[in-house]
Design goal:
The structure holds two protein chains of two kinds. Chain A is mainly α. Chain A has helices at residues 2-37, 54-61, 81-99, 114-122, and strands spanning 41-43, 67-72, 103-108. Helices cover 53% and strands 11% of the residues of chain A. Chain B is 83% helix and 1% strand. Classes of the chains: A mainly alpha, B mainly alpha. The A-B interface holds A 10-11, 13-14, 17, 21, 24-25, 28-29, 31-32, 34-36, 38-46, 49-51, 79-80, 82-83, 86, 90, 93-94, 97, 101, 104 and B 43-45, 47, 49, 126-129, 131-132, 184-185, 188, 192, 201, 204-210, 212-214, 217, 220-221, 224, 228, 231-232, 234-235.
Chain lengths: 136, 236
């Protein structure tokens, strides 16, 4: 009799734990999925720099075919150009968020590959010279 | 709820009364100060972007160390049985331990508020972006703590718990680093699943509900798994 009660208790505890595990896990997954489908975001930056205008968003969400944005930036640039690269990357991420899988982007360092520089020259994309003046 | 705070209070006392907490805090602040100063002098810009980008790496080493003994030591010392006979439920034990570590980490992160204060004296940083980054850092810490607590619930040995927790966090880090080598379709999938990817997006200063939801969701899932791991002892 004693043993039977104990086995029964274990079985109940086990069933209840598994049920809770699955119920709570499903609830969390559903809530997270719902949160990502809502597309709610708050831009806390000064002047909301990463918020796209409604017309840009509308255009990006109605693209007929995927576009790929290629950014050619030499790495190891002096400041503030290093920061500019970060800003461009952040901005392109905002475009990717608005356009979904239709808007892709990649960064290419022209210094890595001589073919890239000649291809750019053929496309009439000029090199930009950067000059930095500093006090000693 | 009151019983959760009893456990939080107990862990809080342990952290204050033993040298371990102070050693961890000193090491953390030294490392974080190095990264902040290093980035500030190299870039010469009044922002904390570079500092926040290395923080996941730093937390990867510190958080498993701070949570490794939480559940493992209770099982090793046999005090878990004692705790289980008390009028406290398993989820309250897990929640108490989680809140205790989260509090310790929050204090460490809170001490770094000196950095943005320094920046606002010498320059004009974007306060909103930094506030968003701090929120992101807290959420990421919660995630890392939950993963480390789960590691701690798996074993009786604190050192093993550290190794398991660190390996899981390191695996996520490697996945994030290797993301660019995957095909484009998979990249989006990985970016949606890995907590650090959501953290990186929040560093821009943009708080997305999907980012917050994913980070808190991951934390809750691992807390749930830790609870289940402890609850299993009742029928095994």
């Amino acid at each position: 009799m004693e043993k039977g009660v104990q086995v029964d208790f274990r079985r109940t505890a086990r069933r209840r734990a598994w049920l809770t595990l699955f119920a709570v896990a499903t609830a969390i997954v559903l809530l997270t999925a719902a949160a990502s489908l809502l597309h709610l975001r708050a831009d806390w930056t000064e002047n909301s720099v990463y918020t796209l205008s409604p017309s840009t968003k509308q255009l990006l969400s109605r693209l007929d075919e995927p576009i790929l944005i290629r950014a050619y930036i030499t790495s190891g640039m002096p400041q503030p150009y290093g920061r500019l690269k970060q800003f461009i990357e952040d901005m392109l991420r905002s475009y990717h968020e608005a356009g979904g899988s239709n808007v892709g982007f990649e960064f290419i360092d022209p210094a890595d590959d001589p073919n890239v520089s000649s291809a750019l020259a053929a496309m009439n994309v000029p090199k930009v010279q950067v000059q930095v003046v500093e006090d000693d | 709820m009151r019983r959760v705070f009893v456990i939080v209070w107990k862990e809080w006392r342990v952290a204050l009364d033993t040298p371990l907490g102070y050693v961890v805090a000193t090491a953390f602040l030294l490392a974080s100060g190095f990264f902040f100063g290093n980035h500030l002098f190299i870039s010469g810009q009044a922002d904390m972007r570079g500092y926040f980008s290395v923080m996941p790496l730093l937390l990867m080493f510190f958080i498993p160390a701070m949570s490794m003994r939480m559940l493992a030591d209770e099982q090793q010392g046999g005090t878990f049985e004692l705790l289980a006979t008390m009028p406290v439920q398993t989820w309250e034990i897990v929640a108490g331990k989680f809140v205790a570590v989260l509090m310790q980490v929050s204090i460490l992160i809170g001490l770094t508020i000196l950095y943005p204060v320094t920046l606002s004296i010498i320059g004009n940083p974007d306060g909103g972006q930094i506030a968003a980054s701090y929120l992101a850092l807290l959420l990421l810490s919660a995630c890392y703590i939950a993963i480390s607590l789960y590691a701690s619930s798996l074993t009786r040995h604190a050192v093993v718990a550290y190794v398991i927790g660190f390996s899981m966090l390191f695996g996520l880090f490697l996945l994030m680093q290797a993301m660019a080598t995957f095909p484009v379709g998979m990249q989006d999938l990985i970016a949606a699943m890995v907590p650090t990817a959501h953290y990186q997006l929040m560093l821009r200063g943009v708080i997305g509900l999907n980012n917050v939801g994913m980070l808190t969701g991951t934390a809750t899932i691992f807390l749930l798994l830790s609870w289940f791991q402890l609850e299993r002892r009742r029928w095994q």
